[in-house]
Write a structure and sequence with these properties.
Elements (H helix, E strand, L loop, with lengths): L2 H11 L2 H7 L2 H70 L5 H9 L6
């Protein structure tokens, strides 16, 4: 029973407030932790901003790519239409009333076999 007050006194002197007041380096550690936390937060914000910028650039490049593909497809279609209108009369004249093989022979200038 005489040990109870001594153990109580020992436990109370090891409270967190007692420990912090006993070690002045704890304030330096706390300052470093706060500074480090701010640095990490700044780094995180910079990373988020960088990712957002990269996504925006990628979106712009993707839109430019799609625009270029559409322009290329349109030019190709126009060229194909023009070529078709140019070649259609010749193809019709060569293949009028003939089978596909007879048309090919006629285009090549060879006489069909048979």
């Amino acid at each position: 029973s005489s040990d109870l007050p001594n153990s109580f006194a020992l436990a109370s002197c090891w409270s967190p407030f007692f420990i912090m007041s006993s070690f002045p380096d704890m304030n330096a550690l706390r300052d470093w932790e706060e500074k480090h936390e701010r640095e990490l937060e700044n780094k995180s914000q910079a990373e988020v901003s960088s990712k957002r910028d990269q996504r925006e650039k990628a979106e712009q490049h993707l839109q430019a790519f799609y625009r270029q593909q559409a322009e290329s497809r349109e030019k190709r279609q126009q060229a194909n239409r023009q070529q078709e209108t140019t070649l259609r009369p010749t193809a019709e004249a060569v293949g009028a009333g003939a089978t596909p093989w007879q048309s090919v022979h006629k285009m090549l200038g060879a006489a069909p076999a048979g």
